[in-house]
Every structure is written in structure tokens, then in C-alpha cells.
Design brief:
Number of helices: 4
Helix content: 25-40%
Domain N-acetyltransferase: 3-158
EC number: 2.3.-.-
CATH architecture: 3-Layer(aba) Sandwich
Order of helices and strands: EHHEEEHEHEE
Number of strands: 7
CATH topology: Aminopeptidase
Strand content: 35-45%
Largest sheet: 7 strands, mixed
CATH class: Alpha Beta
Radius of gyration: 15 Å
Organism: Planomicrobium okeanokoites
GO molecular function: acyltransferase activity
Strand order of the largest sheet: 1-2-3-4-5-7-6
Shape: globular
Keywords: Acyltransferase, Transferase
Structural class: alpha+beta
Number of domains: 1
Distance between the termini: 28 Å
CATH superfamily: Gcn5-related N-acetyltransferase (GNAT)
């Protein structure tokens, strides 16, 4: 399967937002994290991410079809990047697309040495994916509610 990243434009916001809501809806139902879930974000949040000069928002395409998206934010001038969100639409999950997309993103930002992200501790598949890609879980955690805890990951590039 051919995976590509294409930088999102403002006219892509609705399609990205629609897929984001779909991708995170099962997690929202399961964890009831209404204050933090990407499934509750308004369209304007997607638009602002696309327009943010300190970030890049990429559509993840599988065989030229929208499969998901990854938002990369520059945290510091000296090469620290934050991924939030990354998601794959439900029809495309479980096919290795996220792993390929993250590797491609890291290659596009080869001069940056520190990558960070967070995910729900209860989502073992997500944690496994990030660990397989070389991300290490940090000591930082944030309890969202009695069902969910955010855990933080960091990867230092050579």
C-alpha cells in the first residue's frame, strides 16, 4: 500500500475534522473524556491547526485516499516537536498506516532531534505502536478521569 503525506490546506479542514471525529468517537464513548477528547473538538480547532505558522498538518493518504492526519507542532526553536493529534480513520486502522506516516514525518523533519506525544495509558495498542517506533514513556502522567490517564512519550533522534 502506498502511503503519502500531503500538507493540509484550509479547504481540507472539513474532511480532516470529519475523520478525526469518527476516529476518536469510540474512545470518547469508552473513556468519557469529554474535556480532552479530539472527538469533541470544533471544526475551528482543525482550521487553526492548519493555519498555525509553528506547525504542519499533514493528511495521511493511502493509495491517494484520505486515511488520517498528523499534526506536528514546533515546541522550541531548537528541534523539539509535538505530535497532536495523529489519527487513522476506522476503515484504515490496523494496516500499519500510522507507523509508516510517523516514520515519514520523522524523515521530513530530520534536523529535529526530540519528538514528543501523549496517548491514553489504557490504549495498549497505541502505546505499543509508539514504543515500537522508539518512543520511550516518560514519568509524566495526567489523570483525566476515573477511566483514563494520559501518558507521555519522548523520542530522541541520533
Amino acid at each position: 500500500m502506498r502511503i503519502t503525506l500531503r500538507e493540509a490546506a484550509e479547504f481540507d479542514a472539513e474532511a480532516i475534522h470529519r475523520m478525526q471525529l469518527e476516529a476518536f468517537a469510540p474512545l470518547l464513548k469508552k473513556y468519557r473524556d469529554y474535556g480532552t477528547s479530539p472527538a469533541t473538538e470544533p471544526l475551528e480547532k482543525t482550521v487553526s491547526r492548519i493555519k498555525n505558522p509553528d506547525s504542519r498538518y499533514y493528511m495521511i493518504l493511502a493509495e491517494n485516499e484520505l486515511a488520517g492526519a498528523i499534526h506536528i507542532v514546533r515546541k522550541e526553536k531548537q528541534g523539539s516537536l509535538w505530535i497532536s493529534p495523529i489519527f487513522i480513520g476506522t476503515a484504515h486502522q490496523g494496516k500499519g498506516i500510522a507507523q509508516t506516516a510517523m516514520t515519514m514525518a520523522e524523515e521530513q523533519f530530520a534536523d529535529d532531534k526530540i519528538w514528543e506525544l501523549s496517548t491514553l495509558a489504557e490504549e495498549a495498542g497505541n502505546c505499543h505502536l509508539y514504543e515500537k517506533l522508539g518512543y520511550q514513556r516518560t514519568a509524566k502522567e495526567r489523570k483525566i478521569n476515573d477511566r483514563a490517564t494520559l501518558v507521555y512519550y519522548k523520542k530522541e533522534m541520533n
